[in-house]
Amino acid sequence: MGWKNELYLIRNAQIYGPSPMGKGDVLVGGGRILKVGKGLPAQEAYDVEVIDGTGKVLMPGLIDPHVHIVGGGGEGGAKSRTPEIMLTDIISGGVTTVVGTLGTDGCTRTMTNLLAKAKGLEEEGITTYVYTGSYRVPVRTLTGSIQDDIILLDRVIGTGEIAISDHRSSQPTREEFARIVADTRVGGILSAKAGLVNIHMGDGAEKLEFLRYVLTHTQIPPENMLPTHINRSTALMKDGIDYARTMGGYIDLTTSSDPDFLEPDEVKASTGLKMALDAGVPIEKITFSSDGQGSLPIFNAKGEFVGLGVGKVASMYREFKDAVLKDGVALEDALMPVTANPARLLKLARKGRIAEGADADLVLAQEGTLELRTVMAKGVLMIRDNEILVKGTFE
Ligand code: ZN
Question: What are the structural domains of the chain?
Fold first, then answer.
């Protein structure tokens, strides 16, 4: 893509940054938000393109901290390996920042592939980071150590998804797990990055015990651990609520399950958010991620298993919307787990908020229905009035 004049004035939108900022205008240029205000003039000399935000809500672009960007799965043999993600799978859900991760398969899925894919998505227009490793312990890194990967490789901001409490995990001991979190934390400190461990939670009865162990037996704070799939069962959801309330822990809810065919005990992400808020969990402690491009069972209308499909990143937006429209969560609260919260935890200072100097990652949605209309990533219009303007290289 060559250089283009990309100056936009989004006018007269209800701005949620994610806190409500009232009706106003946002001036975008050079990939950043230049100005936020009311009645900003469109200085025609500079060829500013006006986007009418009347009747629309303007929000930060969504951040998805757990996506299998090179594909995942493989648990039904090689033919069940899911394909790589395409750009439009991401932007069509208003997502403008993703963190890529390997999963169960740390053999045929590699760090070199993950980093190359992240670079490709970045070139296509969104912001992309990765975690080093996969489910496996010891962690298979690119350079030989977790710290070296985080310190030396720009795009690596943490470790994961490390599997615990699951029959597919490497069954690490609590001490081995604590060492991974410690190495990741120090790598983060030395590179001014998040140093976050993304933790795959399985069905095991021990639930969040390893994370409690780290918080009670070391000086590591909760900010270095993000356990995901917390809503996979009611029991784990309850333990997550307790972990967040009593230990200040962070919890991540997975959005990509088909809401019509949840496992008998599974909690829909939007419902889980409401449950956690009602139980007194501070909103700052909750994030959503899609687990996008992982393999997902598909059911027919009778609920019979008919094959494997692929988890969708766009499910993040659906669960945000459902939290507002079905579960009665305030818009500014429902936005936190998909914007400001992951930005803070991932230490992405220019992401997840609407403010002068922040990256121009923006979503315009219809007021009332929250139907997604327009998506901008780093100041470039990706989708305008439902029309996809920028596609992936092979789409
Ligand atoms: Zn997982």
Answer: 7-60+352-388 (2.30.40.10), 62-345 (3.20.20.140)
